[in-house]
Design goal:
With about 350 residues, the protein is an alpha/beta fold. The chain folds into 2 domains: about 130 residues, 3-Layer(bba) Sandwich (FAD/NAD(P)-binding domain); about 120 residues, FAD/NAD(P)-binding domain. The chain has 10 helices and 29 strands. α1 packs parallel to α9. It binds flavin-adenine dinucleotide.
């Protein structure tokens, strides 16, 4: 059974790791040479994590698992064929795991800011921090990425750090208790938090807000929101809000599965979060379902763990500090132990591929 996996990030790589070697013949379509772990980008930005902590080369992993690696971008699906930049890949089953891209919402000048959504972008931001030593850094967006980046930068450099959020509290998808605890931790580190503040334009040296005011800054980092990857945007499959709609077995159609950030997964009234934790679980589940198909066994329904109304996350707030979130409950102590657990989980994910 030939399986084409499009995207070798958290979801795609984990699926192959679990299912191969075995009865399935995998082809991985991924333009990068390595598997990368986004959860460690804020620490890399703060100069704490090293490149080898957050990336593993694909070549030895593919050799070990008997996977063929096509180092190209997939462009589209034509029947049971993935059309890539140079080649085509025939499949019996396809798994789409192309993640998400940064969304700039068409705000003027935002595309010129720094982002930490890809390793290349994060490296560019880190180089700027090292070379220019900015004194005033504006982080726009206060989701997981924004608050983690703010905490680590506040701790690792002598700069004024601002977090700008359009909603009335930081970490809007999380419970009020989580927002308050994280805000307290950020304030302890001297981070300035501006809520109910809508960015309307990013100029070279300042950020403009909806009320007409502006703030000078010498580094602007955009973390506010994601959108489907270009590959997903171009696909002609059923979608919700641009994301590919899947059934209870994570299928967009009979022989096409979609996992991770690119999928809209709504099962038993719950909506899956776009997190590494979910992508990894969906990958493991789909690996098992593909093995079932190879053995003519029925597919098993997926059960969401981290949903939008029951968030599950570990949020790191600088070195040696993290908080854990399970639903409405936010566990703030002992922060050091929670940080060690998160750091271990993130680093051991990459180690599995080495
Ligand atoms: C800064 C940051 C911090 C985060 N921290 C956490 C955290 O602490 N905990 C947590 O649970 N989640 C965290 N997340 C979210 C988590 O990283 C994602 O939810 C997870 O990586 C999604 O997995 P994925 O497989 O869907 O996509 P990804 O891991 O992004 O992988 C997608 C892959 O698809 C490839 N690709 C894209 N387009 C194509 C194409 N056309 N053809 C072939 N390949 C393609 C890309 O190169 C990439 O390798 C964080 C995200 C960011 C950005």
């Amino acid at each position: 059974m030939r399986v084409a996996v499009i995207g070798g990030g958290v979801g795609g790589a984990e699926l192959i790791r679990v299912a191969a070697p075995g009865p399935l013949e995998f082809t991985l379509i991924e333009p990068k040479r390595q598997i990368e772990m986004q959860a460690l980008y804020p620490e890399y930005l703060g100069g704490v994590a090293r490149l080898q902590d957050l990336a593993a080369p694909l070549k030895p992993f593919c050799e070990r698992t008997g996977t063929k690696h096509i180092q190209e971008k997939a462009l589209r699906l034509e029947g049971n064929t993935v059309v890539c930049e140079q080649s085509t890949v025939e499949f019996d089953y396809c798994v789409i795991a192309t993640g998400a891209a940064q969304n700039y919402f068409g705000i003027k000048g935002v595309e010129n800011t720094f982002s930490i959504n890809t390793l290349e972008e994060t490296k560019r931001a880190r180089r700027f921090v090292e070379d220019m030593n900015p004194e005033r850094i504006m982080i726009m967006g206060s989701g997981l990425t924004g608050v983690e980046a703010a905490a680590i930068l506040a701790e690792s450099m002598d700069a004024s750090i601002y977090v700008v959020e359009a909603k009335d509290r930081i970490l809007p998808p999380f419970s009020l208790q989580t927002s308050q605890l994280v805000e307290k931790e950020l304030s302890k580190r001297g981070v300035n938090i501006l809520t109910s503040t809508m960015v309307t334009e990013v100029k070279k040296d300042c950020i403009m807000f909806a009320d007409g005011s502006c703030l000078d800054c010498d580094m602007a980092i955009w973390t506010a929101g994601v959108k489907p990857s270009q590959f997903v945007a171009d696909l002609d499959l059923p979608k919700k809000n641009g994301w590919i709609l899947v059934d209870d077995y994570l299928r967009a159609k009979d022989n096409v599965f979609v996992i991770g950030d690119g999928a809209w997964i709504e099962i038993d009234g719950k909506l899956a979060t776009k997190t590494g934790l979910e992508a990894e679980r969906q990958a493991k589940h789909t690996a098992q379902n593909l093995l079932h198909l190879a053995e003519d066994k029925p597919l098993e329904k997926y059960a969401i763990r981290a949903s939008t109304d029951n968030q599950v996350a570990l949020i790191s707030l600088g070195c040696d500090c993290a908080v854990g979130v399970v639903g409405k409950v936010c566990i703030g102590v002992p922060t050091r132990l929670i940080y060690s657990v998160k750091s271990w989980i993130d680093k051991s994910f990459i180690k599995r591929f080495k």
